[in-house]
């Protein structure tokens, strides 16, 4: 095999890729849309409606036990499939009201995101939170307004609300056509055609019959005399809508000035194909990523990438851990010698894999935008960079401060060693942070959302046969402690043992009970720095 890479090869491979995540509030329809996208991409052949809550079938992306039991996505899977000569890498974000650090990191590893909104509910709290992160990271957003088959808010009001929440101009690409208080089709502004609702459900099937008799398919010509009024109404309305919103321009979309909007019903697979066609045509190709020292461009010939996720125990029999790397530049090929920047070690990689939920394929090559999984024997951490030789550290992946803290207590105290092994392995995945209290050796877990605590206890039970209970602790936030003066640093730690913990890299952290306390202690110890991030 020829491992040499030239600019033409890499430029053409970059153009073929689109890497994105779906963000939504729970129940907006993310799983159902994912399933329909996989169906259109020929990854799955049947679309049984996925209802994990009721213990029926599970989607390719819902594979952990806790996910199955609760019907939510806790972990993040990577789904890759081809459609119209594009390779789509879809990163599934956890869809529950809690956030894990995982969710934030996923948004560092994608080039745009698809925001799914339930038409009857509008922009909900989780979507808002994710939206802010996506905007902060400069990631373009495409909106899909789902469940138009159900009763939903007035379309104009919904779009008004969306425009305010997003603080962006909207550009509807499709728009629902109503008739007799029902949505009977979609108008596609770019195709300049109307598409009638095709559905096999008996109730709507009748509606379809009615429509096919009444209207001509695929355009806005209404054929029956008594519908002349409706025809005029819709022609005028489409004109009016077109004037009320901005025309889609690719460069405005990239600059986050405009948000393309689609409508549809994931359940009925209506409107999804327009979305997918748009994603492959306008979804931004792999973009440059910021490192602390410089911007890395995808068409650079040397390989670079960063670890945004580690998943432990994907295969319980082998207790293996996979590090997920987003390829930023260059080309991965079997046997490539990579430089692990943090440990300054070089090693050959022969068995990088691509994953579709828990199915694995050994990769021959990978290009910018792709997600590769490499086996991790405990030496790889989230945020680590891999290059061919350059010392690069990508920004925006680590440094998230947990918001909820609890102490961990074993039901069987003899399992302490096993607990520490298990919990530190789960920490590597990045959804929790673990600290040991300096004076008592008590284990403290910090996470962004309460659900992570349930995930940890469930996984420790299943994967390590450990049962535990949590207790509340008086920790509001944490700060990493640092000082140039070693003696003062040691004295400070000795004098404040009750408030000090140690993280997995043996850095000292200060457990802050409240902000007033933090202000006082910082004023009293001006030579001690209380940092929001670990020193790199
Ligand atoms: P999520 O991953 O965002 O959490 O949502 P998911 O796809 O699981 O969908 C949540 C519920 O909404 C599911 O119903 C699903 O069938 C339904 N749903 C998804 N898309 C549509 C749509 O376009 N129209 C309608 N009417 N329903 C849709 P479920 O599992 O039966 O839950 P529930 O209805 O019993 O709560």
Automatic annotation (TrEMBL):
Broad class of where this protein is predominantly found: cytoplasm
InterPro entries assigned: EF-G-like_DII, EFG_III/V, G_TR_CS, P-loop_NTPase, PrfC, RF3_C, RF3_dom_3_sf, Small_GTP-bd
Subcellular location(s) of the protein: Cytoplasm
Keywords from the named record: Cytoplasm, GTP-binding, Nucleotide-binding, Protein biosynthesis
A GO cellular-component term linked to this record: cytosol
Residue ranges of domain Tr-type G in the record: 15-287
Role this protein plays: Increases the formation of ribosomal termination complexes and stimulates activities of RF-1 and RF-2. It binds guanine nucleotides and has strong preference for UGA stop codons. It may interact directly with the ribosome. The stimulation of RF-1 and RF-2 is significantly reduced by GTP and GDP, but not by GMP.
Family: Belongs to the TRAFAC class translation factor GTPase superfamily. Classic translation factor GTPase family. PrfC subfamily.
Name this polypeptide is given: Peptide chain release factor 3
Organism of provenance: Buchnera aphidicola (Thelaxes californica)
């Amino acid at each position: 095999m020829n491992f040499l890479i030239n600019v033409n090869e890499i430029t053409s491979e970059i153009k073929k890729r689109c890497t994105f995540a779906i963000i939504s509030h729970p129940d907006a329809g993310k799983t159902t849309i994912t399933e329909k996208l996989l169906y259109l991409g020929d990854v799955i052949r049947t679309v049984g409606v996925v209802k994990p809550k009721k213990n029926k079938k599970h989607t390719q992306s819902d594979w952990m036990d806790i996910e199955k039991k609760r019907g939510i996505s806790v972990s993040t899977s990577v789904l890759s499939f081809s459609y119209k000569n594009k390779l789509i890498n879809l990163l599934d974000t956890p869809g529950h009201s809690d956030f894990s650090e995982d969710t934030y990191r996923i948004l560092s590893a994608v080039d745009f995101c698809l925001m799914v909104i339930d038409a009857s509910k509008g922009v909900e709290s989780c979507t808002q939170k994710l939206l802010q992160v996506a905007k902060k990271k400069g990631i373009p957003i495409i909106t899909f307004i789902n469940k138009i088959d159900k009763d939903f808010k007035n379309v104009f009001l919904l779009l008004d609300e969306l425009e305010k929440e997003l603080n962006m101009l909207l550009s509807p690409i499709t728009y629902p056509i109503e008739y007799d208080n029902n949505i009977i089709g979609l108008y596609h502004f770019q195709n300049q055609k109307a598409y009638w609702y095709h559905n096999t459900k008996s109730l709507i099937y009748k509606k379809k019959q009615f429509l096919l008799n009444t209207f001509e398919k695929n355009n806005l010509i209404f054929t029956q005399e008594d519908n002349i009024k409706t025809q005029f109404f819709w022609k005028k309305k489409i004109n009016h809508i077109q004037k009320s919103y901005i025309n889609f321009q690719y460069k405005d979309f990239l600059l986050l000035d405009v948000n393309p909007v689609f409508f549809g019903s994931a359940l009925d697979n209506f409107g999804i194909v327009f979305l997918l066609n748009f994603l492959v045509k306008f979804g931004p190709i792999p973009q440059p990523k910021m490192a602390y020292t410089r911007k890395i461009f995808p068409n650079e010939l040397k390989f670079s990438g960063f670890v945004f996720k580690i998943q432990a125990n994907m295969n319980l029999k082998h207790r293996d851990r996979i590090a997920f790397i987003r390829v930023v530049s260059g080309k991965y090929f079997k046997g490539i010698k990579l430089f692990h920047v943090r440990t300054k070690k070089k090693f050959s990689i022969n068995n990088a894999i691509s994953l579709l939920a828990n199915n694995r394929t050994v990769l021959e090559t990978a290009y910018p935008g792709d997600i590769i999984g490499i086996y991790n024997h405990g030496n790889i951490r989230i945020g680590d960079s891999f290059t061919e030789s350059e010392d690069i550290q990508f920004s925006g992946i680590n440094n998230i401060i947990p918001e909820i803290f609890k102490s961990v207590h074993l039901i069987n105290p003899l399992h302490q060693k096993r607990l520490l092994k298990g919990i530190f392995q789960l920490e590597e995945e990045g959804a929790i942070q673990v600290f040991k209290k300096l004076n008592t050796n008590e284990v403290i877990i910090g996470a962004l959302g309460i659900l992570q605590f349930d995930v940890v206890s469930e996984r420790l039970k299943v994967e390590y046969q450990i049962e535990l209970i949590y207790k509340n602790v008086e920790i509001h936030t944490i700060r990493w402690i640092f000082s140039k003066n070693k003696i003062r640093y040691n004295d400070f730690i000795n004098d404040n043992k009750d408030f000090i913990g140690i993280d997995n890299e043996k850095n000292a952290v200060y457990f802050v009970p409240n902000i007033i306390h933090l202000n006082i202690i910082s004023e009293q110890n001006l030579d001690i720095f209380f940092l929001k991030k670990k020193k790199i």
